[in-house]
User: What shape does this take?
Amino acid sequence: MKNTYFYTWKEFSTNNDIEIEGVDIAKSPIPPGFFSEYGNDSVSLCSKDKIDKYFDIKNDSDKNKKIIELLYCDNGCHNGDGV
Assistant: This one.
């Protein structure tokens, strides 16, 4: 996937100067839906089945997102997130 980058939550938050008061970002998993403020430019997928289904879709216009939040465990994994 051309122009696609994969970041851990720690890398993404550091690169974008994201801080959450009272939360150690390096140890705290991202809550599912954190990027919903981006509206139609983002999608949050929680579970292997939803991720597989999203990337199997033939309509590429559905995949034209700026941020795809992939949480492999249903409802997110503790310290196992990725953006």
